[in-house]
From TrEMBL:
Residue span, ATPase AAA-type core domain: 149-367
GO molecular function annotation: ATP binding; ATP hydrolysis activity
NCBIfam families in the cross-refs: restrict_AAA_1
Protein name: ATPase AAA-type core domain-containing protein
Length: 460
């Protein structure tokens, strides 16, 4: 829905003859220049533009033309999934394809349209290195200090960025003496800025490949700050190079996958581009920990990677009117981090005008959210999903109650242990029963077994 609205109303690289994937109605509020507005969008017909109504806080209608309406859409939309949830990922990946093709068209001089800043960012394992580097280079940003403390990171030690235009998989492009991936003027400028900020670099003429080494010190930090000003700007420059990696995939493969996406068929993911063929990739990211030890970033645990990816993204994207769509963002967290997830989230976003939707199966998450903000999705038929609020308050509720409300679970211990306890209720020898009880951990169910021991002992 949001990808469709962006394609119709953005002022650059507009898509023609766009049809909505489904009919919808949405109402939301947005803040511009300190004023709050309410936006209602109704898509009644597939091949017609939606009906749009904008009012101010006094319910007074606001007249907005098509070019201005882009301002009334969410400014940034950040997606994340911890797994292979294509409901989340496919719209973002399709957006990437559009941007890469737009950049290539501009580079060949076939379009005089300006570049535009992406509205959609998809944060997954592949983007994690860029998020880490950008946050740790601009370490004074609000929230980075707490992030480093939690992960016991002192600072970034060094990292390497490789940018190449003529890899073996690069398109056989040729324009004005240039071969391979043709960069736009703004991408060339960012590449040159990265070269200027690097501690040292190596150039391979055959592949038109720059290997940029950054040893992090005050000089490097000052240089990157001079050229890019903020973690978000630095990341966006790197991100735009990364979007060009899709051009390394065979054109016919990209065309077929794009066709399948349009028909909403089950599609294969785009093939993974190996590092040796990427326009931009990272290497040798090393961190210095609080204990003085230097480690490769990739040696951190999955939970630490996920922690930095989620909270690093939130720290970096501090734009008002942003929307975060997070699919199970705490799956790799230890119990302590799951318990603190909502607290950390509120701390980072307390003064912002942003919205966040997340899916989770964790009672830790639900127990920190009031009932009115919790929605339970239940499948009631092959193609029918029923969405309801919990029937009781969830904020501060025990895990037993949450699991009962959300998952219809009357028992909260695992099935194997539950079956064992039920089996022990049939035991008639108190000595055997006591011996078996000693093998069980504490639980409310244990009390009924102790009562059975007392009863059997009295009978004897």
């Amino acid at each position: 829905m949001l990808v469709y609205l962006d394609a119709v109303y953005r002022n650059h690289n507009k898509r023609r003859n766009v049809s909505t994937p489904f009919l919808f109605e949405i109402i939301y509020s947005i803040t511009l220049d300190g004023e709050k507005y309410f936006v209602e969008i109704i898509q009644e017909k597939k091949n017609k533009l939606p009906l749009i109504t904008i009012t101010d806080e006094n319910c007074k209608p606001i007249e907005v033309d098509d070019e201005e309406f882009e301002l009334y859409l969410p400014q940034k939309i950040i997606g994340y999934t911890s797994g292979e949830n294509e409901t989340i990922s496919i719209p973002f990946l399709a957006y990437y394809d559009e941007y890469a093709e737009h950049t290539a068209t501009r580079a060949f001089g076939k379009s005089d349209e300006l570049d535009y800043e992406p509205r959609f960012y998809f944060m997954d394992y592949n983007t994690n290195l860029g998020i880490v580097i950008s946050n740790l280079v601009f370490e004074e940003c609000e929230g980075v200090k707490e992030l480093k403390e939690e992960l016991k990171i002192d600072k970034i030690r060094n990292f390497q960025i490789i940018i190449q235009k003529k890899s073996p998989a690069a398109p056989k492009s040729f324009i004005e003496g240039e071969k391979g991936v043709i960069l736009t003027e703004d991408l060339k400028k960012w590449r040159d800025n990265l070269i200027s900020a690097a501690t040292c670099y190596d150039y391979d003429e055959k592949l038109n490949k720059y290997t940029l080494d950054f040893y992090f010190n005050d000089t490097t930090k000052e240089a990157i700050g001079f050229f890019f000003q903020s973690a978000y700007n630095f990341y966006t420059a790197l991100y735009k190079f990364e979007l060009l990696n899709n051009l390394m995939i065979d054109k016919d493969v990209r065309k077929n996958i794009k066709k399948d996406r349009k028909t909403r068929r089950l599609t294969n993911k785009m093939p993974t581009v190996p590092n040796k063929n990427k326009v931009l990739h990272y290497s040798e990211l090393k961190l210095k920990l609080k204990n003085g030890q230097s480690v490769d970033y990739l040696s951190l645990s999955d939970g630490e990677h996920q922690y930095f990816n989620i909270f690093g993204s939130i720290i970096m994207v501090n734009h008002d009117n942003s929307l975060f769509l997070l699919d199970e963002p705490e799956t790799h967290f230890n119990p302590k981090w799951r318990r603190l997830f909502i607290s950390h989230l509120r701390l980072l976003t307390k003064s912002r005008k942003q919205d966040l939707f997340l899916t989770s199966h964790s009672p830790f998450i639900v127990s920190d959210c009031p009932r009115d903000f919790v929605y339970i999705f239940k499948r009631t038929g092959e193609q029918t999903i029923h969405v309801v609020n919990p029937n009781q308050e969830t904020f501060g509720a025990s895990f037993d109650n949450i699991l009962r409300m959300a998952f219809d679970m009357d028992e909260v211990i695992s099935k194997e242990a539950s079956d064992k306890i039920k089996q022990l209720h049939e035991e008639t020898d108190p000595k055997i029963l006591e011996a078996e009880i000693a093998k069980l951990g504490d639980s409310p169910q244990l009390m009924s077994l102790y009562r059975r021991v007392d009863m059997l002992s009295q009978d004897k």
